[in-house]
Every structure is written in structure tokens, then in C-alpha cells.
């Protein structure tokens, strides 16, 4: 079962969001009960390459420069890293090493995710079973 992206974003951020999708990379902001968050991520099970990683890194750097205390939420739907020579030579493995550090979700996003996953667990199970 694959939920449409906007349905997921609306469920996670019921107070509103402005999230752009460009080349399967998510960037933007959302409002939670605890305040504004920066949102980054990937969609469409892309193979993440250096170009994608640079867009994500640029968004993180811009957010932390403009709003040093603002939380960053990363949503990931990926098939892994792109295994192209260009990406390997440009250091994609370094980007992945950094991006797989533990993240702390803002409390409001964690609550929204918990509500969404509980509500959709039975639908997902029925899709898997047949």
C-alpha cells in the first residue's frame, strides 16, 4: 500500500505545511504544536545521488543558519544510494554516513506519526495479506 504523499504530509502536519518536491527531494517547512520545523527528505523510492544529497545539505545549512534552534524532520522513501561511478567519486558514501545519525523528532511530529501509523496499520496489513 502506498499512501499519496500529500495525504501523509497532511496527517503528519495538520497545522499546515509548505513542502516542495523537486526531482523526488522534499524541502520546506511545517507547523507543529511545538512550532515551525524544517522538512527535508526523499520520495518515490529514488536512488539518492550526490545531486540529491547536495540539495538536502543546502536546505539543512540554510535552515540552521537562519533558525539555529529549529528542529529538522527528515522523511525518507528511498531505494538506497545511487551506485553510479560519478556519485561514488563525489563521495556519496560520506553523505550517507552523516545522514544516518539518530534524529530526535519534535514531540508534535512524533505524536502525529503515532496517530497516523496506528490508524493505517490495519489498512497496510490487509494490503500485504492479499
SSE blueprint and pairings:
Blueprint: H1 5-12, E1 17-22, E2 25-32, E3 35-42, E4 46-48, H2 50-66, E5 72-75, E6 78-81, H3 85-89, H4 92-99, H5 107-129
Parallel strand pairs: 3-5, 4-6
Antiparallel strand pairs: 1-2, 2-3
Structural summary, described in words:
The protein has 130 residues and is of the alpha/beta class. The chain is 47% helix and 25% strand. A four-stranded mixed beta sheet has the order 1-2-3-5, covered by helices on one side.
Mean pLDDT: 76
Structural class: alpha/beta
Radius of gyration: 16 Å
Order of helices and strands: HEEEEHEEHHH
Strand % is 25-35%
Largest sheet: 4 strands, mixed
Strand runs, count = 6
Shape annotation:
globular
> If helices are DSSP runs of H or I spanning 4 or more residues, what is the number of helices?
5
Helix-residue proportion: 40-55%
Q: Distance between the terminal alpha carbons, to the nearest Å?
A: 11 Å
Uncertain segments: 97-102, 123-130
Order of adjacent strands in the largest pleated sheet: 1-2-3-5
Quick tags:
disordered C terminus, alpha/beta, 130 residues, two-stranded parallel sheet, 6 strands, 4-stranded mixed β-sheet
Amino acid at each position: 500500500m502506498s499512501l499519496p504523499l500529500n495525504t501523509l504530509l497532511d496527517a503528519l502536519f495538520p497545522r499546515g505545511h509548505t513542502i516542495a518536491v523537486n526531482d523526488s527531494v522534499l524541502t520546506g517547512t511545517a507547523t507543529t504544536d511545538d512550532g515551525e520545523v524544517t522538512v527535508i527528505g526523499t520520495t518515490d523510492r529514488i536512488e539518492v545521488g550526490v545531486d540529491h544529497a547536495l540539495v538536502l545539505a543546502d536546505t539543512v545549512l540554510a535552515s540552521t543558519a537562519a533558525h539555529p534552534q529549529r528542529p529538522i524532520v527528515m522523511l525518507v522513501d528511498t531505494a538506497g544510494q545511487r551506485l553510479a561511478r560519478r556519485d561514488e567519486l563525489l563521495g556519496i558514501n560520506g553523505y550517507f554516513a552523516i545522514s544516518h545519525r539518530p534524529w530526535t523528532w519534535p514531540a508534535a511530529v512524533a505524536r502525529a506519526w503515532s496517530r497516523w501509523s496506528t490508524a493505517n496499520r490495519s489498512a497496510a496489513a490487509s494490503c500485504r495479506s492479499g
